[in-house]
Every structure is written in structure tokens, then in C-alpha cells.
Write a structure and sequence with these properties.
With 455 residues, this protein is an alpha/beta fold. The chain has two domains: 36-101 and 415-455, Urease, subunit C, domain 1; 102-414, Metal-dependent hydrolases (TIM Barrel, Alpha-Beta Barrel), CATH 3.20.20. The protein contains 13 helices and 17 strands. The strands form three sheets. Strands 1, 2, 3, 4, 5, 15, 16 and 17 form an eight-stranded mixed beta sheet that branches. Strands 10-9-11-12-13-14 form a six-stranded parallel beta sheet. A three-stranded parallel beta sheet has the order 6-7-8. Helix 1 (15-32) packs across helix 9 and helix 6 packs parallel to helix 7 (277-286). It is globular.
């Protein structure tokens, strides 16, 4: 996830893309505008009748069920038509499937995609809403700027929004994530090379109440870890002493193997090499280390088809469609990012094969999109990530297990299963998730904490 040449500028929007994107956004809005947006009122009960219920833990669907919740918690799942209809909101679930909301364990909510152009003030509520509308019940933000974290934590908790956790600092080698002439997103960047570097910066980072620790061992041109292993070990010990997930970003299997003695909870990033993948799979399995492929963070520079395809069913505004289509489809923008990743050795076929190798090798997969990074727009990253995981050869069961149970657990978020007493984070989708995992990121209705989100 290194930055390319400083010559990269925000894309120019052509009028043709503007009108086509407006049309796409308008169609999506019209298509899903009927989904409703009734507010959940405390003490009132919601009942979905005659709905299919998907269980990620078993990979099975129970047909014709009644599902109810109250005060933000699921109360009952029973045979269809057996629960009393006395509820403030009754939903006819025939033809729909209920599944738990997803979790994204690798987002950058304070970025908007055309990075590293001029930083722009991103609204916390808007970013979280886009994540929620794409099916996310929780997110782990790996490097939000300071003011964004404060704004996100001050949001009205009675509104239907995904739960968010934050890694308040990005640990990197000196210069590893720098953009010339620009502080990286006003983040609390901590550049480390030796143990002594952790003292003062770490204390500053703690003031933001870190809920995860994120380190990048990548630096273009370096074959070895850019952060020495003793420093990584200290970061891992600090994370685990506080019960926080420790995530290391790399694009190379050898670097991941070198970093595993620091006991990360997850390795993040598309892997560019296959030679070390089988050995890495065995080592990660032994160490119970999860893998977050975040394929979209690189493969969106090598799109198999126009981004407009990913907009199908997305309940967003025309403005988002304009931004996403115009910037992602801009030839100069795409060419710059493609050249950047090719210089670092990215090969789409090898990246996808590495995911399959690790998954088949028994490594626990978690779901992360890199939303906010180049060409991964807020709310659209989930659709492209599911699509890429399918291209890697993962069946829908594995994709949905990664996006629900595994990602919630890794990020330290409650949820991921529909059970009595579990959070009422429920997606109602049209289609069979066992046949097509993409229906999960194109939900017809979204309930978070028992509250229905408005499109």
C-alpha cells in the first residue's frame, strides 16, 4: 500500500462520465428507494416473517423462519408464522434471506479514494453510512485522522450506523508511507527503526485510545522488513497486553514469514509472490494468524470490467456514482496506479492464486476492503472485494464466513451470527447467498442495532 509518484493528481471528470454516472446513481436510488427507513423505537419489537435465515457458521440456510428483535437484540428465531405478529414493525420476508451484517477489518474511513491528491474533510457520518448501506455492521479503521476519530465517537448512537473501532497510529519505517509535501492524512504516523523510537510517539498515540495496532513492514525497494523484528515484537506485546488486535501489512510472503515471530493476529495485503505461499500458509495456521487479502486495494488498478458494474444495487446517491465512476475510469488515473503496482511486482493472477493457496492451506480468512485507498471508494469496496474473492476461487461459504464471524472476531466486534441475544445487525437480501455471495453486499434492507438504515 505504498504511495506512487507525487505526480499523481486527482482525476479530471469528463462530461460523458459525469452524465453516465449520474444516470447510474439515479437508477440505483430509484431501484432501492422503496426499501423504507422506519426508525426503531426503544422498547418496540420488529418481526420479519417467513424469511430464509443464513448461518455463516454452518454454511446452511433455514427456510421459512420468523425472526424478531427488540431493544437492539435478537429475541427469537422460530418456524415461519409461529411468532405472534404484535410488533411495531412487521416485514414480509418471503423471497428474502436474512443474514448477519458483515464486518470490514481494513478500512480508511477518512479517505475518499483519489489519494494522494489534496486531503479533503470527510464527514464521519457519511463514510459510516456508506459502509452500512453496503452491508457492514462494523468496521476497523486502520488509520483515520485525529479529528475524524473524535467526530466518529461523538455521533448520535441512536442512529443506525456501523460500530467502528480505530487504530490511532500507523507504525512504519521512516519515509515508508510519506507523500511528498503532505502529512499522511493528518494521521498519528509513528516512524520507527529501533525500540527507543516507540517511547514518546507511543504515548501520544495512546491518547487516541487505540483499539488496534497496525504496522506496515513494506517500503518500496526493500527486500527485508522495513521495521526490524525486535520492534515488531514489542508492538505485538503491547497490543496483546491490552487485548488489541495486531495487524501487519505486507505484499510479500517472505516478509510475512519474517514478521510472524512478532505474533500478529493478521497479515494484511495482497501477496505478489507464490513461491513462499505454501510455507507461509503452514506457519500462519500454526500461529493462528488470520489473513486479510484486501484484494481491492491493488486489483482495482487492474479491473476485469468497468466499475459501473459494481454499482448494481448500490443504494447510494448520484453524487457518489459521479465520483466513483469518473475517477476510477479516468485513463490517466488508472494508468498511473497500474504502473505503480507493476513496478512493485503485482500480478493479478499470482495475487489471486496466493489467496487460494492460503485459504486451501487452512489459514483463517478475514474480510477487508481497504476502502478509502486508491480506487477503493467508500461503500463500493465491499462489492469489488467479494467479486475478487470469487475470482480467486473461494466459494460463497468461505467468503461469507470471512466477512461475518472471522472479521467480527478479529476486529474485536460483537456480531457475525444470528442468534438469540446477538446484536440485531441484520441484512435482508434478494437471492441465495450460497450461490452468490455478492447479494450480501447488495442488501435490500439493512438493520443495525435494530434500527433500519435509510437509503
Amino acid at each position: 500500500m505504498q504511495t506512487p509518484d507525487s505526480s499523481l493528481k486527482p482525476a479530471k471528470i469528463s462530461w460523458s462520465w459525469l452524465f453516465s454516472a449520474l444516470a447510474a446513481g439515479l437508477l440505483c436510488w430509484l431501484f432501492l428507494g422503496q426499501a423504507g427507513g422506519e426508525r426503531f423505537i426503544e422498547g418496540h419489537r420488529t418481526l420479519v416473517r417467513h424469511v430464509a435465515v443464513y448461518d455463516p457458521a454452518t454454511g446452511t440456510i433455514a427456510k421459512d423462519r420468523d425472526l424478531s428483535w427488540q431493544d437492539g437484540r435478537i429475541t427469537e428465531i422460530a418456524d415461519g408464522g409461529s411468532l405472534a405478529p404484535g410488533a411495531s414493525l412487521v416485514v414480509d420476508g418471503r423471497g428474502l434471506c436474512a443474514l448477519p451484517a458483515l464486518a470490514d477489518a481494513a478500512v480508511f474511513l477518512s479517505l475518499d479514494g483519489p489519494y494522494p491528491g489534496d486531503s479533503m474533510p470527510v464527514q464521519a457520518r457519511a463514510s459510516l453510512r456508506l459502509q452500512g448501506l453496503s452491508g457492514m455492521g462494523g468496521v476497523l479503521d486502520l488509520n483515520a485522522n485525529r479529528s475524524f476519530i473524535q467526530r466518529a465517537r461523538a455521533l448520535d448512537t441512536s442512529e443506525a450506523l456501523p460500530r467502528a473501532r480505530f487504530a490511532g497510529a500507523l507504525f512504519t519505517a521512516p519515509g515508508g508511507w510519506r507523500v511528498p509535501g503532505q502529512a499522511p492524512w493528518d494521521s498519528s504516523l509513528v516512524e520507527v527503526q529501533e525500540a527507543a523510537d516507540l517511547s514518546a510517539p507511543w504515548n501520544r498515540a495512546l491518547r487516541f485510545q487505540d483499539q488496534a495496532i497496525f504496522a506496515s513492514v513494506e517500503d518500496e525497494g526493500r527486500d527485508a522488513l522495513s521495521i526490524p523484528l525486535p520492534v515488531l515484537r514489542l508492538l505485538g506485546a503491547l497490543a496483546h497486553s491490552r487485548g488489541l488486535p495486531f495487524i501487519i501489512e505486507t505484499h510479500h510472503a517472505l516478509k510475512a514469514l519474517q514478521a510472524l515471530p512478532a505474533k500478529p493476529d493478521a497479515i494484511l495485503g495482497p501477496l505478489f509472490d507464490l513461491d513462499g505461499a505454501p510455507g507461509l500458509a503452514a506457519a500462519m495456521r500454526r500461529g493462528d494468524c488470520a489473513y486479510i487479502p484486501a484484494l481491492s486495494s491493488v486489483l482495482n488498478a487492474f479491473p476485469p470490467e468497468p466499475l459501473g458494474v459494481w454499482l448494481r444495487g448500490f443504494p447510494s446517491s448520484a453524487a457518489l456514482a459521479v465520483t466513483a465512476l469518473a475517477e476510477a475510469e479516468d485513463p490517466q488515473n488508472a494508468a498511473l496506479w497500474t504502473a505503480h503496482w507493476i513496478r512493485q511486482g503485482a500480478d493479478p493472477a499470482k495475487i489471486l492464486a496466493a489467496v487460494k493457496t492460503l485459504s486451501d492451506g487452512g489459514v483463517r480468512l478475514a474480510f477487508g476492503t481497504g476502502s478509502g485507498l486508491p480506487l477503493v471508494f467508500q461503500g463500493l469496496g465491499a462489492q469489488s472485494e467479494v467479486e475478487e474473492l470469487g475470482r480467486a476461487g473461494l466459494d460463497p461459504r468461505r467468503i461469507l464466513l470471512a466477512a461475518t464471524v472471522n472479521s467480527h472476531a478479529l476486529a474485536g466486534l460483537e456480531g457475525g451470527l444470528l442468534r438469540s441475544g446477538a446484536p440485531a445487525d441484520v441484512l435482508l437480501v434478494a437471492g441465495d447467498p450460497l450461490k452468490d455471495a455478492s447479494v450480501a453486499v447488495q442488501p435490500r434492507r439493512v438493520f443495525l442495532g435494530g434500527i433500519e438504515m435509510k437509503p
